[in-house]
């Protein structure tokens, strides 16, 4: 009985992760300002973006943008999650299972950009899907799919969707092993 339940649950989880790559991107609620530090509050949740206090973390910046501290605080319960990501722009997205989601953009070389769908998974904010875009229409795989960076009018063209490590069918993220 337990074995059947486990394999049934495993199949549901694997299917859910595979479907995430095909789901429409969540609706954007608000763009974060370009300046850091910045804070937005909505529905009793406060999200702040700032420079990390630790100089070793600040040094981790690169072409993907500066390394930033993201702090998500539930003002009612006091629950708080802090994580670090490189970012050139961020959007607050519609909630998933009652928690805010974030769209965090990074920049690569050659006009490539990545948007990372970041949501609460097993108590931590994690990137669960990566969409890659480029600023040159002719290099796109599906030029009819477009978007813009937060607070920018520059049109970006879709290249591919990737699932980050920890969401490619395995049930654990690197920090859980």
Automatic annotation (TrEMBL):
Protein name: Uncharacterized protein
Superkingdom of source: Bacteria
């Amino acid at each position: 009985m337990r074995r059947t339940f486990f394999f049934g649950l495993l199949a549901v989880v694997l299917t859910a992760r595979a479907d995430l790559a095909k789901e429409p991107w969540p609706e954007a609620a608000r763009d974060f300002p370009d300046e850091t530090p910045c804070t937005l509050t909505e529905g009793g949740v406060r999200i702040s973006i700032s420079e990390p206090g630790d100089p070793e973390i600040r040094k981790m910046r690169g072409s993907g943008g500066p390394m930033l501290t993201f702090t998500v605080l539930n003002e009612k319960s006091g629950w708080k999650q802090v994580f670090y990501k490189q970012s050139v722009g961020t959007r607050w997205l519609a909630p998933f299972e009652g928690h805010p989601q974030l769209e965090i953009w990074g920049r690569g070389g050659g006009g490539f950009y990545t948007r990372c769908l970041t949501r609460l998974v097993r108590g931590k904010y994690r990137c669960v899907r990566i969409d890659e875009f480029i600023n040159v229409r002719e290099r796109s795989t599906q030029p009819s799919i477009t978007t813009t960076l937060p607070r920018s009018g520059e049109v970006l063209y879709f290249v591919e969707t990737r699932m980050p490590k920890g969401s490619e069918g395995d049930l654990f993220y690197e920090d859980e092993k």
